[in-house]
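Lab notebook, design round three. We kept the backbone fixed and only want residue identities now. Task for the bench partner: fill in a sequence for the structure below.
Input structure tokens:
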């Protein structure tokens, strides 16, 4: 994590080797209390040359998780097959 101000930090994440530049990449940031519930911050980032990166600002020092998926069709959600398997990379 990088410095943002005296009492907050920033966290950067990058995804590389995406299958294509279609759609965007959804990044969701969680802390221990919010994990797999409502993210504390979320962003959709465009893909350029198979890469997408994000920076989350104004974070208190702590432990965080970033969940990522390739929203290839830009519908704002992860798409699934009828059997429950994801159609989009994550």
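Proposed sequence:
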């Amino acid at each position: 994590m990088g410095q943002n101000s005296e009492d907050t930090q920033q966290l950067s994440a990058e995804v590389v080797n995406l299958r294509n530049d279609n759609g965007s990449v959804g990044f969701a940031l969680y802390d221990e209390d919010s994990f797999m519930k409502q993210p504390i911050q979320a962003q959709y980032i465009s893909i350029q040359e198979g890469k997408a990166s994000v920076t989350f600002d104004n974070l208190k020092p702590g432990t965080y998780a970033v969940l990522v998926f390739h929203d290839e069709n830009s519908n704002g959600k992860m798409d699934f097959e009828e059997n429950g398997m994801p159609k989009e990379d994550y």
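Keep this in mind before ordering anything: The chain is about 0% helix and 45% strand.
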